[in-house]
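Apologies for my clumsy wording, but could you write out the amino acids of a protein and the tokens describing how it folds?
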Amino acid sequence: MSFSVSILATGSELLDGRVVDTNSNYVAQILSELGLKLRRVLVVDDDESELLIGLRQLMDVSDIVITSGGLGPTTDDLTRDIVSKFFGVGLYEEPAGRRHLEEFYAKRGRLMDESNLKQALLPVGSTMIPNELGTAPGFSMSNAGGPVVCSLSGVPREFKKMFNDSVLPLIKARATGVTELRRVNFKTFGVPESVVGKIVQSCDVPSEVTVSYRAAFPEVHVVLKYPAGFAIEDVAARVRKNLGLDVVFSEDAKASFSSAVQDLLLKEGATVATAESCTGGMIGATITSLPGSSAVYKGSVVSYSNSIKERILSVPSDILASHGAVSAEVVTIMARRVRELMGTTYGIAVSGVAGPDGGTSEKPVGTFFVAVSGPTGEWSLRCLYPGERHIVRNYATYVSLDLLRRQLSGLQLPESYPILASVRDL
């Protein structure tokens, strides 16, 4: 049997839908890069007998079992107790754990309730795993030569640091003979997942490379996984070329769509302002969610009503009357005017019918128009993306930013979204 890692996640909040288990997902991604897979993930309620049964099951099939959660100061935090019972030992107060707790509260000018000292209790014979970001230290424990239990805080940011600092080195040391996998990432927007798959299939990807896809609406991510030492350059170049730079917005696994746009603005030394109707400020919120956005983003006019379009953005009333607020003519004026008002390099504008009401036969729900005004000219585009209100608004936000990305990159305006397979000559 190959080297195996399993996770025992504890907490009623994981079973009743209050909290999503992101810790297991994080470990799975890290292990995948090492050429390993999670053997099992078991989520158990805060019940001592259930936890003990679960731990025994995982220890029978795993080299390392990671427990997530159950190290806090309350009565339903049972991890240290069930690990102690599994190994048949008692608990002791770890001096370093007590000092950590006292210093943690002292630095914050808070009094530590005595109940918190429960977190300094560790199974006899275990090794403490520091928790620099929280109060509860973790621990690792095993019988000589047997599987190892690594108990970590369930708080995601604490879990990740404890895992990276203490558990990952242990996995790397023990998982001998495993071929590490590398990745090439292509993040795309504007092309359906089925079309992306067809494009990649045309690239003659060799058997040594595993292709995986992830639809993260409205993006589609393509990952090429390959063993360390394999010459991936030619394969990656074919995939890059066939997908196209107009579709691939980043090859950085950590990059977001908005961060890719921000990087282009920073590179050009350009700024942008937004005029939003149906999105109600979502474009501006998406841009300003990033650190450093003040260097590229100057402001917004949320012109939800026609009166604001007229008074603030100087959209002529006769244009509104003849073409309607949801039109290429209106969004073009909005983009041009907000650019002038804010003194920016680019202006973006959007207006549409997000629903569920307000659609017509000519402009059904899901119809929106986007415009970009910039140094190289003005673009406008009509889109139709039927769906729930939040989906339409989210998609309109992406299309708006994508038109800006295309102007910044010197790319062409697409005929429509989604971009279909026929334009790829497949």
Remarks:
- The two ends are 43 Å apart (CA to CA).
- Residues 307 and 317 are 9 Å apart (CA to CA).
- The chain is about 35% helix and 25% strand.
